[in-house]
Each structure stands twice: as C-alpha cells, then as structure tokens.
RNA sequence: GCCGGGUUGCCCGAGUGGCCAAAGGGAGCUGACUGUAAAUCAGCCGGCGAAGCCUACAGCGGUUCGAAUCCGUUACCCGGCACCA
C-alpha cells in the first residue's frame, strides 16, 4: 500500500488530525526508517465498557497495526487517582490495585477481539507516574500554564458556574501528557472529547525536547437514540459482546439520520458503496429498512460471523416483521401451589411466569389486549384456566415476549 | 464549627396544610399505524383477585380533624464563611 492509500484508509471517519499533514510525515518517516510508529491510547481503568462507540477508536488502532505499527495501551491506574475532570462533581471511587489489575486484564481480554494482541503493548502509567518525585512534578507543572489548562471547556463551564475545581484536577492533563513523554508516542488516538488532553501531550513533549505526537481524533459515535453519544450509562449502546439477535435489533432501532455515520465508523464497507446505498435509499430505489439491515449484518459479521448475521436477520424478519413465534420459546415453570381448585387465574399466571411485574400489571396488559394464550387474544382479566391443560401452553405478551408454561 | 440551600416514584423534576398515589418530561409496557424494536398517535405506568384498602415524598419524633407540605431532630449532598494559624 502506498502512502496515499494508507492515508486514505486511516483518515476514514477521522474527526481531525493535529497538526495537519502530521500523519503523512510520521508515516513517511516510518516507512523510510522501517521503524513502526508508536500509537498511544489511554484507557480509564474504572469501567471496561466496550461498545461500538469505543470500538470506533479501537478499529482505527487495528488499522495502524495492520500497517505494521505498534499500539501502546496505557491503563491509567495512576491518573484514575485524579479522575478525568470531564464528569461533574461525582467523586470517583478509589480503586484497589487488585481491581485495577483485574480491570486491566478484562480490558485486554475484550480488546483482543478487535486488536492484534501481538502488536499491542499494555502499560500502566503508575510505572512512571509513581516514580516522579514531588520536585519533578513541580518542574513538570511549570511547563504548563493555568491559562492553558483553564482553556479547557469543562473547566471553563465549571468555573463560570461557580462550581469547584479541585487543584489536583488541573494535574490530570499533565499526567496524561506525561504518559506520551514516557513512551515517546508518535501518535495519540482518542475521541474528540480527549482533544485537550492529547494536545497537552504534544505541548509537553515539545517542552521536553521530544518530537511532538500527532493527535488523531475520532468522532464520538452517537448512541441508538441518534443524538447523545453512545455510552453504557445512557443505555443507548451496542456492546461488542452482545449476542447477534440483540445487536441486530438494537441496530435496527437507530434513526435513519444516523445511518451514514454508523456505516462509516462501525463497518468496513467502502465509502463509495456506502454513498451509493444511501443515495439509493434516499431516492426510494431501495427500502431504507434494507439498508439498515445491511448495516446490522455488517456489524454482526465483524464481531460474530457472517452466518450469525444471516441468522439474526432471519430471526428479526420472522419475529418482528412477521410477528411469528420464535423457534425457541423460553420455558417457565408454574407452581401448582398458585392454583386454586385446579384453576389458575390468568393474571396470576402471567405474573408468576415473569411476563408481568405483578397481577396488576397483568390485568392492565390483558385489558389493553396485549396478552395471548396459544395465539388467541385474551380479553377477560378474570379468566380462569384449568391447570390440567396448561402444560406446554404458549403465553404471549405484546409481540415479542413468549413463554411456554410448564406445570410442575 | 457556623450560616444558607437541598434530599420527591426507575431517572430528571414540579408541588409549601386538605382537590396528592403526587404536575411535566424521560425511560418502560400495550395498542394502532408503518419501512424497523424508528417516527407518529392513543392508552397504561406503587401494591393488592381491584371493592376499597395498604405502602410511599431521606430516617425518626411532634403539631394538626388532616402533613410531601409546618416544627424538632438525625443522616447525607451542595454552597459560603470561619477555626486549626
């Protein structure tokens, strides 16, 4: 692959590279000297949270690896002491060394589905941050000014709003910047929200006489709602370890407006093809639903397999589009204890089998016409069923909750 | 330590004595519709075999015929001020 092709590949989906032309320069030098680039990614050890949004960055790293470069993951065990100031007032829980080590391991484990283990180095930043003496910290601090740090959006907002900013929080960017110095990073990858921290790395490297790293930013993927960023806490995410059917369903629920972004950032479908697909959908030549299904299949193929993708598609068609009962219906035991004189109240049954939160909820569902027994809609919330012909009966709530009853 | 503000249902958030199982929004559930588990519209959305009753507005105690609302107290959170100097 020549340089232009490499650049084209790498810049796909990127939200920006600082400085302009920096990537080309680094790549060029690397190919001339035969020395792989060190590409850094900092990770917060608090919560291994691998979803498609995070995967955007990881997949980009993988591309670097495939071009022969070295990825260095930095687990921020030390920076975790501070906590990224991006959040609000919530104090981060202190983690024990053990937890951090374990989280680190979990991370590496999950990450390896995307990254090439061979070309991935994992470091903990306590390794060097822990060795700094107070004097050295002071000396490093002298390399950054308060004005620079306060420039940061988060701080600006909090400062204006009169919210407290801990002195230690000002050290966060410094600490992260020092990571870049410690490993002599060529490139630091991160989401757009990491802009400040990553640029701080450049600054500090320059101050200390190193060649500054290139900041490589990826956009934050929007979540399933199509508006907010994808995150576990917002619950609008697709986990890379989600089972195929779940992935498929979740991806089908994204709004059309998010389609282009998802294709670009989460799949390997060539840009030309993506454009053609979207244009066809726009003009009504293709049903946009089918384009979205294609997206879902592409993603599932990456994290599972093409076969799993096809199966999930078929499952979705049958269960949701045609509203058929799934081939495998979960079974639930119903204890005869809840029966009276060999009869079972329908609401009790729905509740005890887990289809309703309680008899009140069940009653509502029935009144709203949401319950079916063996495919027949139930309309009477006072219905009594004979316990004897219950075994094997299929109960359904709405169009997608099925349970096969087992009397025990 | 002192002063002030706060703590409401899954989440956010209104409510300052009865009309409060508590506005509104979000999430969730059901139905209709459709190109989907999208969007839109409608209904539901503490518990109870449903009548009424019970449990709920941080905990406890009190005032009152009646308290999410008033008083006291405890805990926690957020500001500010002070002490250690």
Structural overview:
- The structure is a single chain.
- With 408 residues, the protein is of the alpha/beta class.
- It contains 17 helices and 13 strands.
- Strand 9 and strand 10 form a beta hairpin.
- The protein has three domains: 216 residues, 3-Layer(aba) Sandwich (Rossmann fold), CATH 3.40.50; 78 residues, Tyrosyl-Transfer RNA Synthetase (Orthogonal Bundle), CATH 1.10.240.10; 77 residues, RNA-binding S4 domain (Structural Genomics Hypothetical 15.5 Kd Protein In mrcA-pckA Intergenic Region, Chain A, Roll), CATH 3.10.290.
- Helix 12 runs parallel beside helix 14.
- A six-stranded mixed beta sheet has the order 1-6-5-2-3-4, with helices on both faces. The protein has a five-stranded mixed beta sheet with strand order 7-13-12-9-10.
- The longest helix has 16 residues.
- It binds one RNA strand of 85 nucleotides through helix 11, helix 14, helix 15 and helix 17.
